[in-house]
Structures are given as C-alpha cells and as structure tokens.
Amino acid sequence: MPHQFKRRTSGNRMADTAKTTEKKGANTRLAHAGYEPRGFHGFVNPPVVHASTVLYPDARTMEARDQKYTYGLRGTPTTEALASAIDELEGSAGTIIVPSGLAAITVPFLGVLSAGDHVLVVDSVYSPTRNFCDTMLKRMGVETTYYDPRIGSSIAELIRDNTKLVHTEAPGSNTFEMQDIPAIVDAAHARGVLVSMDNTWATPLYFRALDFGVDLSIDAATKYPSGASDVLLGTVSANEAAWADLRQSQLTLGVCAGPDDCYLVMRGLRSMGVRLERHRLSALDLAERLEKAEGVARVLHPGLASHPDHAIFKRDFSGSSGIFSIVLDAPDPETHRAKAHAFLDALEIFGLGYSWGGFESLAVHASLDDRTVAKPPEEGPVMRLQIGLEDPDDLMRDLDRALEATASV
Predict the structure, then answer these.
(1) pLDDT tens digits for 247-304?
(2) Domain boundary among 217, 236, 268
(3) Do residues 125 and 173 make contact, with C-beta atoms less than 8 angstroms apart?
(4) What residues does 195 pair with on adjacent strands?
(5) Which stretches of sequence are listed as region Disordered (predicted)?
(6) For the chain, how far is it from start to end, CA to CA, in angstroms?
(7) How many alpha carbons fall within 13 Å on the CB side of residue 90?
(8) pLDDT at 19
(9) 2 in any annotated domain
C-alpha cells in the first residue's frame, strides 16, 4: 500500500489545496479530496444537486454565461466535488464524469479519432472496448490494429502517419499481462500520438498513469471507487495537452453522470484506500495458495514472483488489486466448458456475476475467443476471480470445493 502520492506540479484544479496536503498519505487524501464543508454551511458531504436549468440574474450574465454554473450538463456542485477529488488523486488538469466505465473509454476515443485515422489497441483489452472499435469506429472509417500487450518499445513499428491514439490497459483483462507503459508512451509521443490507459485495476492509488506520461487516464468508478456493486460510473482524467479536447468532446456528445451516482462514488472514495488494501492482501494470499492447489495449472496475478511480467509490475506499480485469474488444469479442450461449469456451480460464497471491485467475491469463466494476437492459455479454461472483503480462509474453502468438483469431470 503506498503511503505517498507522487505529485504533479501543474494543471490541477485543486492545486491551492494540494499545497497543504503535499506529504499526506493516501487515506488522508481520500478522506479530504473534494472536501469543502465551509462552502456548504459546514456540512461534511457535498449536497446532491439535481439540476438541468440554472437561472441567471440578468440578460447580460445570461448572454455571457458569466457565472459558475450555467446548465446541469456542464456541471453542478455534486459533479464538481467528485471531479476535483479525482483530479487530486490523478494529478490531472481536469476530469470528466460519465455514466459508465465503457463511456469513459468511448468518449475520449470519439474525441480523438476521425474518419481515416488509425488507433492501436492492446489485444488483452476489456472486451466491450474491442466491440466498440470493431463496430462503431469501423463504421466511422477508423481502422484498429490490436497489438501484443508485451510489445513495449517495439510498438513504434506499428505507428503510422495516421495513428492518433494508442490505448493501453495494464494488466490486461482476464489474462493479466503487464504493459511497459513508459516505453509505449515514449514511442507514441515521439510520433505525436496520444496515449490512453484503462487504469481501473490499479486505480491512481497504485499507479498514477499521468505521472508515467499517459495523456488520458480512464477508470471505471463502478469498481473500487464505488465499492458497493450498486453504481455505474466512469471517469477520464487528462493532462494539460489533452484536457481541452476531452472536455469539449463530453459537452458535444452530451454525456454526463447523474448527481446521485456521483454522490455515492464520492462516499465510496473515502474508504477506497482501506478497502483496496484488504482486497490486495486477500487476493495475494489466495493467489499464493492456489499456485499450490491440485487442479490449477497456472495463476495469472502480476503480483506473484512467478508471473512473467512481475519485474515490470514491481518497477511501476505500488500495489495490486483484488482481481486475478486461474487456469484450470484441463489438457483436453473438449472438457473445458464442462470443467468451468462444474467449478462455478460448486461455489457457495463466490457469486456468479460480472464486474468487480465490490465487497462480495465473484467468479466468471473468462471468454477469450476474440483474441487475435495475445492467445489465451492452452492448459485449460480461465476462471477470473474477484476477491471481496470476506475472510480468506472461507474463500479458500469455497475454492477448494470448486476444484474438487472439476476433478470428477
């Protein structure tokens, strides 16, 4: 668990406040980011402001839009409080709040890319991102090339004159390959290409993407910032070079989040550091046990010394989160589906459901059929595990039952 944030010195809308919190630890900053009780009559939490229309005092002000709030789409005290808190964590010039994690990917893509452009996307990407690229972007005339997550600086060979964006995700969805983000950033920026990163797994607590040169840091706040599996929300934080276009894209598309969801995520932020530490420790504990378990061919967790990308993880990240995968030992491909179903159906504590980052443990059979470069493991089906806040010993007993069930298939 990191105790300090590395600090950017420019572009942060909370810069004045940050001067007094420069050396504060993660949990202190989470408790006070976006926190202005004196602006709301001393109440600890910012108000939930439901707004579309905002009234102006006179015609001149209305014509010039010369007041802080002008229309609900452009922001309210509730959305501003959350955006300011995320800026404080990310070290960003600005943050937009959108209705889902997927929207946090599609809005900046639409803002950066035009017909005739080319985008590079990591092959281990979140699958709805791939679907967006293969459908809507393709119809717009944008070409997508998927690249190996371990490509590093060799990504320079894939950059064309019309490449406008490199999209990264570390670790990769379901298979947890690490990317060499600094090497990719250097190669992209040398050609004037922007870099975006889906940083949902680590959050800015464990990896401050903008400090590593990433231009657009994307987070599904549905996950750890919320922590309760009851909110859909996404955030995109930009550096100074990318902020103006990102903000304009959001306003042009009319994509904004509701105040109730922003409030719930703001409340979740206060405990995210404590929760994430529990997720981290429990997941590592279980991953280490599962490495020795009968019926497990491989554990895919970059925090393990056995992971092929562990050195990159240790170099760049200050912690790991609560989601990883295991590969079941099933040499016969014909048994993969049956073994995966047996594993899932034997679970009692783990729920069978998508998403992650909440208080409850979840398990899914990862679908990897859409990979084109980063081929899935061959030893058996990949089971993705979200480790919640339950006691690890109870979760391990549940996993043991599931592994026993697969042995008879």
Answers:
(1) 999 999 999 999 999 999 999 999 999 999 999 999 999 999 999 999 999 999 999 9
(2) 268
(3) yes
(4) 166
(5) 1-29
(6) 40
(7) 36
(8) 43
(9) no
Q: In the numeric block, which tokens belong to residue 331?
A: 């040499």
Contact 195, 166 (CB under 8 A): yes
pLDDT score at 33: 77
As a three-state string, the secondary structure of 67-121 is CCCCEHHHCCHHHHHHHHHHHHHHCCCEEEEECCHHHHHHHHHHHHCCCCCEEEE
User: What separation in angstroms does the CA of 398 have from each of 277, 339, 352, 359, 409?
Assistant: 22, 16, 13, 17, 18
The region, left, alpha or beta by phi > 0 then psi within -120 to 50, assigned to residue 281 is: alpha
Are residue 351 and residue 315 in the same domain, yes or no? yes
Look at residue 86 and tell me if it is in a domain: yes
> Of 208, 236, 268, at which residue does a domain stop?
268
| pLDDT tens for each residue of 228-251 | 999 999 999 999 999 999 999 999
Residue 194 and residue 50 in one domain: yes
Identify the domain containing residue 314 by its residue range: 271-407
Q: What is the pLDDT of residues 165-175, one digit of tens each?
A: 999 999 999 99
